[in-house]
Each structure stands twice: as structure tokens, then as C-alpha cells.
Specification:
By secondary structure, this protein is an alpha/beta fold. The chain folds into 2 domains: 280 residues, Rossmann fold; 199 residues, Rossmann fold. The protein has 18 helices and 15 strands.
């Protein structure tokens, strides 16, 4: 046997190629840490979007790079012919997908800089699957890291068959339920909005094309654990899921979440104030409200939340971001200043609730907050990273989805199969009233139904911990992935 074939894993490199956005880069960074502990080197390849200004997302990426010196980060050269984003009528995400496809040449040049035997595998993000074509040309195993759950993946896998031959977009169906194998009925209105367009529209077509390519990789690493989404996982392994084509192997390796260490700097005095405040609260007494790295609410909605929280009488920790103030998607990428809390919230609110509430501008170390013993419930936008962080911490959720696949996640979270959350009514119409905020906070914190919900989530937390232990389902799935890569590399002549 040749000497290189006996080399330790530390001389083998996994090249990770995440999709754009904090919600994709951070979980892939957590996966990188997992692979480092397994003795592999990890290089993460990033692209700087020419139409992404110096905003919070780009700044967070730089902080992630600085906080993970064990990971090698490589930024590909700028696109020599970037699109005219400012003059385009197409959504930013359309340009993102086109940019990822155009970068295959640069990615291929970078991969060829590695000695062939050193390349362990290429792991793409759920929207950067174009890279699998480059890996196939080089004879390198290519896998997808699906940062959302198995339920969304099951829907994605079955979506092309649903759209095939349709003369109208799904939007015309309104709230009519869509039936997919492995998940509860999904109201058509709860699908990702880009997928509601006519199937031949550029945005819908581009997104479906990118997601279809997930099934063309050698396997899919899913950020979930089997017992949390058992029906969906079984569906993905069912021949009926994608008629005429078998899904590649599915590896449920989650929950891959942060350990509470910050990915973002926070002024030391503010972080100390936040954690000291949590330390002073009774166990499971605090309602935590946060709507993700991109989630913003109108000023009128913020005032409704404030009134509802005040009336509830419960302790709360609330992360408030400056309202976007516009529906223009181009503005979605802009840096927003810290909010003026006095101006946004009802007069006297901060003073009246100061003894039992803390309002934090812009950002909080979420994993640390959720793992704190004083946190008793979580009002969330239903981003999958947030869902897993809450499940891993055993914190029940109140669902307030805003965009992307979050409404679909809400359906899964509130279904009894998962059973980790309740719905905040009114979000679909664009207004959750103060009375609903008050009622749902009281329900989750005070009622017998709330105690039952907490018990279910506590059981899910135990399941998550068991999945990650030696011999647990997620550890076994990770071991299968590594063994399958070794086998595939042998078949490819490595």
C-alpha cells in the first residue's frame, strides 16, 4: 500500500463551500468543528458578494473567521463581471444563485491546488450545490450539508414533481393544503415565497434547479436527529419520494449548534449586564424574544409586543432591531443602526417593566441565553438554527415566522409529531395583537398545557443529547458518512 493511503486524517482536507448568509455559514462552521474533532483538516471557501455592502452579515462572517483559527478560510477572487444589482428588477437571491454558478471555475482552480490524495471531500451548502459538478470532474466525493431540517428537505425533494406541468404558480392555491410524503399537510401559502411563483419564472426556476441538485450529490448531511423528524427521514428513504430516482444517502448528524460561545462581539459591559440579569432571575421564568439575524418588525408591531408583554406580568428578555421601514428587498441587505428604544416603544415602557424585563438592542448571544436556567420560553421566527438551539436547551417555543422556509418550519414544529411549539396567531396577516402576545405568554408560562409542552420539549432535549452521545444515532450517522467517503474515494481511485 502506498504511503499516502496510510496517512492520518489530519492530512486530509474537507473543503466546505457554504451558501451565502449567516444562517448558512454559522452552522457549517459548527459542522467544521465537528470534523476537526474527527481528525480532519477543514478549509472553508467563501465568496464576497459584490452587491453585499459592509453590512452585519459580512461583518459577522469576518468575526466567525477570526473566532475559528483552526479552520482555514479562503476567499475566492472577486467576480470580474458582477451583475448590475442596483439596476436589476430581480430579487437579490436570484443574483446570489447566478453568482454561485459562475464561481465554479474559480472553485475548480482552487481545488486543483490541493494534492489529489489530500482532498477528502467537498461539502456544499444547500444552495451552492453547483459545486458538485466541479467535484465530479476532479473525482472528489461531493456532499450537501442541508442546514434546514429533514421535513423541509422532504418537501424540496418532492417539489419538482408537484410543479411539473403546472400552468399556474402555487400562489393561486392560497391556504389549500399540499400533500407531501413524510410531513403534515402544508398550506400552499406557507411555502417559500419564491416557490409560489409560476414554475417558469426566473426566480422559481433558479431556486428549484439549485435545490434539485441536492439529490445529485453523493449524500446529504442533515442538521437534525432521527427521532425529532422520524416521518420525514423515513420519507427521504422511501422510493416514492423522488419517482424514478433514488435519493442519495441521508445522514442525520444534528443537532449541530453552537455551544454558547459568541460568534459576534458584544460590548463587555452589555454582555455582563445581560448575563448578570439572567443570573438574578428565577429558574424558567424568563420569556426570550428574538427574530433572527435578519428579522425585523414594523414599529407598530413592536409597540403591540410591548403592550402584551407588560400586561402578561412575566419576566422577559427582548432583542429589538431597528425596523427596516421598507419592503424593498435591496434594502434588506443594508446595515441598520441600533434602535432608539425610547422612540420605538410605548412611553414609559422601559421604566415600568425595568424590574422584570430587559430590552437588548440588535443582538444577544442566543445559544447562551437559551441554555441559561432562567429561560423558560422562546418567541422565535422559526429559523432552523434557532429551533435546534431551543430543542437542545429544552426550551418551548412560540412561533412567529417571517420569511424563507420559516412558515413551513412552523407547521412541523406545532404538529404533534414534533410537538415543540405553539403558534402566535396573526403573523400571516401581518399583525400579532397585544392580546395574543399576552395570552400566549400566559399560556406557555402558567397553564397546564404549558407544563405539558415543556415536558415534551424536555424529552426532545434528552433525545438530542442521546443522539450526540457515543453510540447515538447522530454519532453513528457521522461515522457512516466518514466510512462512505473512504469507500467512495477508493472507488474513485484514490
Amino acid at each position: 500500500m502506498e504511503k499516502d493511503a496510510m496517512a492520518p486524517r489530519r492530512q486530509q482536507t474537507v473543503v466546505m463551500y457554504p451558501s451565502f448568509g449567516v444562517g448558512h455559514i454559522i452552522p457549517m462552521t459548527e459542522l467544521a468543528r465537528v470534523l476537526l474533532r474527527r481528525g480532519l483538516d477543514v478549509t472553508m471557501v467563501l465568496i464576497e458578494r459584490p452587491f453585499w455592502p459592509s453590512d452585519s452579515g459580512a461583518a459577522t462572517t469576518r468575526r466567525v473567521m477570526a473566532a475559528n483559527p483552526a479552520i482555514t478560510f479562503h476567499v475566492l477572487p472577486p467576480d470580474p463581471s458582477p451583475p448590475d444589482f442596483a439596476g436589476s428588477t430581480k430579487p437579490p437571491f436570484f443574483h446570489t444563485l447566478q453568482l454561485l454558478r459562475r464561481y465554479n471555475g474559480e472553485l475548480g482552480r482552487f481545488l486543483r491546488s490541493f494534492p489529489r490524495r489530500r482532498l477528502h471531500s467537498v461539502v456544499t451548502g444547500m444552495f451552492s450545490t453547483y459545486a458538485a459538478e466541479v467535484a465530479a470532474e476532479l473525482g472528489v466525493p461531493a456532499y450537501t450539508f442541508f442546514a434546514s431540517g429533514a421535513g423541509f428537505l422532504a418537501v424540496v425533494a418532492q417539489l419538482p414533481a408537484l410543479l411539473a406541468g403546472r400552468q399556474e404558480g402555487l400562489k393561486v392555491l392560497g391556504d389549500a393544503p399540499l400533500e407531501f410524503l413524510g410531513v403534515p399537510p402544508i398550506p400552499a401559502s406557507h411555502m417559500v415565497k419564491e416557490l409560489l411563483e409560476h414554475p417558469e419564472e426566473d426566480m422559481c426556476n433558479a431556486m428549484v434547479d439549485a435545490l434539485k441538485r441536492v439529490a445529485d450529490t453523493d449524500g446529504v448531511l442533515v442538521n437534525t436527529f432521527e427521532s425529532l423528524e422520524s416521518r420525514a427521514v423515513q420519507a427521504l428513504r422511501d422510493p416514492r419520494c423522488v419517482p424514478g430516482k433514488a435519493m442519495p444517502p441521508i445522514y442525520c448528524i444534528g443537532p449541530v449548534v453552537g455551544d454558547g460561545s459568541p460568534h459576534r462581539e458584544m460590548p463587555p459591559e452589555r454582555r455582563h449586564e445581560l448575563l448578570a440579569w439572567l443570573d438574578a432571575q428565577p429558574e424558567r421564568s424568563v420569556v426570550y424574544l428574538c427574530f433572527g439575524s435578519r428579522g425585523t418588525l414594523p414599529a407598530e408591531q413592536l409597540r403591540e409586543i410591548a403592550v402584551g408583554l407588560e400586561r402578561s406580568g412575566h419576566r422577559f428578555l427582548w432583542v429589538v432591531r431597528t425596523p427596516a421601514g421598507t419592503d424593498d428587498p435591496k434594502k434588506f441587505l443594508e446595515q441598520r443602526p441600533e434602535p432608539d428604544l425610547e422612540a420605538l416603544l410605548p412611553a414609559g415602557f422601559l421604566e415600568r417593566t425595568g424590574g422584570r424585563g430587559l430590552v437588548v438592542p440588535s443582538w444577544a448571544p442566543q445559544a447562551a441565553v437559551l441554555r441559561h436556567l432562567s429561560t423558560g420560553a422562546f418567541v422565535t421566527h422559526c429559523g432552523w438554527n434557532s429551533v435546534l438551539e431551543a430543542v437542545a436547551a429544552g426550551v418551548p417555543m412560540l412561533c412567529w415566522p417571517l420569511y424563507s422556509e420559516q412558515m413551513l418550519n412552523k407547521v412541523l414544529m406545532t404538529d404533534l409529531d414534533m410537538g415543540v411549539a405553539w403558534e402566535m396567531e396573526g403573523y400571516a396577516a401581518g399583525r400579532v395583537g397585544a392580546e395574543e402576545v399576552e395570552a400566549k405568554v400566559r399560556l406557555v408560562m402558567d397553564s397546564e398545557e404549558g407544563r405539558e409542552l415543556r415536558a415534551r420539549v424536555a424529552a426532545r432535549r434528552e433525545d438530542a443529547m442521546a443522539a450526540l452521545e457515543d453510540g447515538g444515532t447522530s454519532q453513528e450517522a457521522l461515522a457512516r458518512f466518514l466510512a462512505d467517503v473512504d469507500k467512495l474515494r477508493g472507488q474513485l481511485g484514490d
